[in-house]
Write a structure and sequence with these properties.
The chain is α/β, with parallel strands linked by helices. It has a domain at 29-184 and 207-236 and 264-281: NAD(P)-binding Rossmann-like Domain (Rossmann fold, 3-Layer(aba) Sandwich). It has eight helices and 16 strands. It has a seven-stranded parallel β-sheet with strand order 6-5-4-7-8-10-14, with helices on both faces. Strands 1-2-3 form a three-stranded antiparallel β-sheet, with no helix packed on it. The chain is globular and about 55 Å long. It starts with a strand and ends in a 6-residue tail after the last helix. 34% of the residues are buried.
């Protein structure tokens, strides 16, 4: 029987009858990563290297042992089966939601059970990984406020963001551009015989290293209840960037049509200013030349 307990900097001290022993149960520096894929797994590994306790999920049973070997407490979680979102999985101070885009997760409904379980969990801070696809292709540069005037029902991912914002406090949303780094070498994105439309349009990409920098900076600086864009500083054209990427690997470059195509340029100025960071790989053309960044 517990006689009494008190909290000292997130460490609960439970004293039991006859003072037989003192049990220390801490959730300080604990985070749950929902989705340990291309981004979630390196992020989990990074946080472990910083001394954090990390729980992580996968939808593939054969990946559970791999997560465990990486020091992650593994869970099999499928948002299509809400019963897999257990109280123990969400028993952390922080939660990173990183669900790869797919048709089933481009609507609000699959996220509702997760939102409800977060509301009744000990989670205090949430980061939701979103995408710059929330911004329209209208040949303009967009900062984070560009979606303010977009009505509900226009963009499914924006509707999902708002569903989390409406129900949860201390939520940060990170809108990443196209994800590159490691096995995601841009020279492999197009086959040689592919005709890519709009070769002159700018790209909005970000390297994995900078994804980790932004997420960790939000946590470290406690910058929640905000939206952040995650893209590199530069926006070379598709023709420039992907042609160079192919040539550096001695691969045939894709073909680019001269036809015009609507585009957008995503600004990262707010992210750098508020988080007071400089990206590791701000120049995409320089990054593609650095072969140490790719597998």
């Amino acid at each position: 029987m517990l006689l009494f307990g008190r909290c000292i900097t997130h460490v609960w001290i439970a004293i039991k009858p006859n003072c037989e022993h003192i049990s220390f149960i801490s959730m300080e520096n604990s985070i749950t990563v929902l989705g340990c894929g291309w981004l979630g797994l390196p992020f989990a590994q990074h946080m472990i290297s910083q001394g954090w306790q990390v729980k992580g999920s996968t939808t593939s049973p054969h990946k559970l042992e791999s997560l465990k070997k990486n020091g992650i407490k593994p869970y099999l979680v499928d948002l299509n089966n809400p019963d897999t979102i257990t109280p123990d999985f969400l028993a952390s101070d922080y939660l990173l939601i990183n669900i790869p885009p797919s048709k089933s997760f481009r609507q609000v409904a699959p996220y509702q059970p997760l939102i409800e379980r977060i509301q009744s969990s000990p989670v205090k801070r949430i980061i939701f990984v979103s995408s710059t696809s929330v911004y329209p292709l209208n040949n303009l540069s967009h900062d984070e406020s560009a979606t303010d005037e977009i009505n509900d029902g226009i963009n499914p991912l924006l509707d999902i963001e708002r569903a989390f914002q409406n129900k949860l406090q201390n939520l940060a949303i990170v809108r990443f551009g196209g994800l590159i780094g490691g096995v995601r070498y841009p020279g492999r994105f197009f086959k040689a015989d592919t005709i890519v439309k709009g070769g002159g349009t700018p790209v909005n990409l970000i390297h994995l290293d900078d994804c980790l920098l932004i997420i960790h900076s939000i946590i470290k600086q406690d910058r929640f209840n905000q939206i952040f864009n995650g893209v590199a500083d530069t926006h070379p054209s598709k023709r420039e960037f992907y042609s160079l990427a192919a040539s550096l690997r001695n691969q045939p470059a894709p073909q680019f049509s001269s036809s015009e195509k609507d585009y957008k340029i995503i600004s990262n100025e707010k992210t750098k200013a508020i988080l007071q960071i400089q990206l590791h790989h701000p120049d995409l053309m320089a990054a593609i030349r650095d072969q140490s960044l790719w597998l």
